[in-house]
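Invent a record, attention on tokens:
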Amino acid sequence: QISVQARSGLWVLRRLFSGGGGDEAVQIRLQGHDQAQARDTALEIRHRIETIPGVRDVRIGGEDDEGQPEQRLRLDRDRIAAMGLSVADVARAVQLNVGGGRAGVFREEGEEFDIRVRLRPEDRLTALDLENIAVRAPGGATVPLSAVTYQVRERGANSINRLNGQRVTHISANLETGVALGDAVRAIRAALRDLPLPEGQSIVFGGEYEEQQRARQDFTLAVLLAIGLIYMVMAAQFERFLDPLIVMFAVPLALVGVIPTLWLTGTTLNIQSLMGMVMLIGIVVNNAIVLVDYINLLRRESGLPLRQAVLEAARLRLRPILITTSTTIFGLSPLALGAGAGGEIQAALARTVIGGLAASTLVTLILIPVLYVSVHQLRDSIAARFRQKQPESSEATAGAPT
């Protein structure tokens, strides 16, 4: 029987974005086909993990399960060989009598039904019934199954976990409050580095750590896509390729404000922080777009020189940029303080945006104008040199003998 219980969205966010703590924050999958070896290895892993500070409640999946009672048949290979039998003969006799064998086909009204022959249910209920199963020897004589086998009472597993066809043993542990998941995983890796693993066994970290690693990879791709899409949109807007690069210069410099903000507020660099960085990419370029676009407008429409256009645009756009930044920062402040339901989860996102936006505003007002002037002066200088070389090459071509 399989049952599935849905979790609330807030629970999922807490499990995915928390830096540590919680139920079974660390999960290890021990993969291998030999269940007995896996159990011994799991016990050694648990012993090593229990010595790591900050890690508690280390458990092996199914260790409290007593298992179901089983009746197992053990083959006496010496007796089987002495009677001229093979292991396949004994196995076939047990299969035919207990599981049944196909004896023919019954046809009725165009449909076919297999005819299976086996012992009656009341003749295969007890251990004595199994011992009395007849095994036919090569000479035609029959011997009871008890003559070539013996029975053992054992307990078997109630369930066998598999992943991609391999048996899996789960080892889980909780983390004490304040212990970061990444630090705990690094400590566990160091403790298990010299652990000898039997052939065919492997250790894989799962649970929250696996989800966080997958989420970080997805967000890395999201950051690259965001940067690429923003550049293409700005290139279409400015109708040139150089100005979007100047605007994008504000993106990496926004980290100057993100890192100190996270450090001062005691916020870890978790998935929510990365989400804030993705949002920040789209936000920090807005002020730079407003400034660069107005500089181009003054140069194009008013015919102002480069430096004068930059100074005039910076003066006229100072107030709108500061107002836009201030409203965004004040609007995110309650979220950054962790106020409201679920606020503690979204606080890292808001703090990332606030710190990066504050730093990017200074970048926009100071470094973007400086960079704009430097880049365009360099471009004009290169273009002037190229134009000077063109007439010289034309005169040389005209003076050459034909």
